[in-house]
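Annual report, structural modelling task.

Input specification for the CU-O-CU linkage complex:
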Amino acid sequence: MASLQSSFTARPTIPTTRIPPSQLAVTKRSVVSCSGGGVDRRNMLLGLGGLYGATSLVPGQKAEASPILPPDLSTCDPKGAWTTKGSEVVVLDVNCCPPYTDVQTDYKLPRVTKPRVRPAAHRISKEYQAKYELAIKKMRELDVTDPDDPRGFTQQANIHCAYCNGPYDQIGFPGIDLQVHNSWIFFAFHRWYLYFYERIMGELIGDPTFALPYWNWDNPRGMQMPPAFDNEKSPLWDINRDPTHRPPALVTLTITNPPVTDPVQIVANNLTQMYKEMIGDVESAIDFMGDPYSAGNAPPARASGGSSEGGSHAGVHVWTGNPNNSNREDMGNFYSAGRDPLFYSHHANVDRMWTIWKDIPADYSKDIEDADFKDAAFMFYDEKKNLVRVKVADCLDHRKMGYKYEHSDTPWMAYRPAQRAVPVDIKKLSKNANRPDKLFPLKLNKTVRVLVPKPSKGAADEVLVLEKIVADSTKLIRFDVFVNDEDDKPQELDRAEYLGGFTQVPHRARAQESASDLRLNLKELYENINIGDDDSIVVTIVPHINGDEVTIGGIKIIPRVAA
Ligand code: C2O
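The model returned the following structure:
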């Protein structure tokens, strides 16, 4: 890594501004109460995702499978985007609702003649960059000349706000937000969003093959903000970014506090994170894609999201947004993220990760057959301003949608952490660890070590569950989890002992998000730490940002139910 990295200069990043702790009681937040933890992954494997969802007590829930339906635009709440300041609910000064029309059709994918090729943003030519700038300039002009044109820059940005900060209720479930994050519909929603965004750009510049550049943050050569975006005169510029993160600052896919400043360590952490969220930590399609989410379910909480969504995806959002803004606008909050042109290139790479993951050989199936997944639907305006309904099932093969990605190397594929030679002395290590019965429920205001019993000895196929995590959804949250860690170097994630982390991008939901269980697969970690035949492990939980906003209900290790 050092050689790839040598041209980057070390540049210290400024510690994240801490948001003052909120006094907001979780129980006061909502009108809808909801029982217990996240959707049990086993239900989905039995094809019962809709039946035994997290929200079986929500009034009006039907027992049959029922996919998320596209929103009813006529009921979009113009004052529906909220956040909080301290204990106060603050309605954001933004109307995210799209222009209304009742003419809508089911979208049919047009036949592909010549695929669009999405290039890596850090190596686009001057000519390509000029085209891209022209497209965004034309979108921005529409904001002024025809603010009701759904293809305008602000209208497009507001799509993201409308689908994740509360303006839409689910059809048939008044008071329950439609939320496209933290579940298995995450990838599909954003794929469709980019699909139309790209077609709109092509339409506005009269080039039907124009393709959105992707921010190649998974490769060391793409780990800076792509140069095209770092020009104050360009339509691609956005003032609401972290001013300390302009090139040559390196993106950190995982956030630690204090931040890592050594560029070699940043790259090592990033590649480790990529390896884990794409390969090492993933034992099923649900692990990668996210938990089931069906009609009537309360908005899923962060722990229900897939490994990629909660990992690199969330990390880049937080890294890009300005910590000096009250809601970390633009990229650091879902309501404003779409206002930064970088958002779309970021999500092009998130989408590229979906395509790459699908092709990585694995001993589990990459497909989700549940009808609640495939029939989930959304509403978009196409490049001709038609309101169209789209289904998840129709976006599962991106090639049929007429685009592909220019190749870029994926060095993270071979970045599994090195194995420990000998197991740790668990007796010795557990001397400084707490017993779980005394510790929970736990407010995560400092680093904790817990001795957790295993259901079976040694390197079994097991899952660590942090139970009933409650975290204020309007707050940035970050913590990490290590196992049998003697060294206590929470900034070095490229070690055998690093299990995984939790990043929550702030957003606001009207209905309370359910407490959810964070599940971290232990199978590969046991091999990495060379666990021997121990019957317990010491888990270290390290809060980095706003740990005092997090409560963890319990901790346990369970056998993983194989797909
Ligand atoms: Cu809709 Cu990156 O979030």
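Residues 126-145 form the longest helix (20 residues).
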